[in-house]
Amino acid sequence: MAMLILGLAIFLGAHSLRMYAEGWRTRMLARLGARGWKALYSVVSIVGFVLIVWGFGEARQQPVPLYAPPAWARHVNALFTLAALVLFFAARGPANHFRAKLGHPMLAGTALWALGHLLTNGSLHDVLLFGAFLLWAAGDYAMWRRRDRIAGTTYPAGTLAGDLGALVIGAAAWAAFAFWLHARWIGVSPFG
């Protein structure tokens, strides 16, 4: 469990610098340059991610049950994960109504993904992983929306083509992951 916690601290800590240490990040960026900063940030993030995967895998070997997920939660999680993947692609795709309305759809999607997985997984290691991502995503989303309001940031108006692109690509990625990749990579079939 310690490896999982360390990985979460490193990974989410690195991804929280804009939230808690903007001044330090700005100084490091100026000192290292954009390429140097991105290289350091990438290495730290990869180390954190590897530790999360390693720690989660170890923790799964000796689960500590906290609660029994309800049967209906599997279906809710499937919908939340579908929405999360649509929002992920909306964040990176052409102008769409998701980004225009939410501002930061990837963070909103991460929160939905984490919440859905909390509903369907009741062991301590699950709660640590998905709870940490839910708290991080919700906090980061709130921070960015507050900064958007203060700065008067507006996002490009959405287009039907952008919406359809995010929906189609997100749904295709969801189907591939739900019916094939999740079982292969994670070792759990979402639909039993």
From TrEMBL:
Q: Which domain of life is it from?
A: Bacteria
Where in this chain does the entry annotate a coiled-coil region?
Answer: none
Q: What keywords were assigned to this record?
A: Membrane, Transmembrane, Transmembrane helix
Q: Where are the transmembrane segments?
A: 40-59, 71-90, 102-120, 127-144, 164-183
> How is it placed in the membrane, per its record?
Multi-pass membrane protein
Per the record, its GO cellular-component terms are: membrane
Domain NnrU, residue spans: 3-190
Its localization reads: Membrane
First-listed, main subcellular location of the protein, grouped into a coarse class: membrane
Full protein name: NnrU family protein
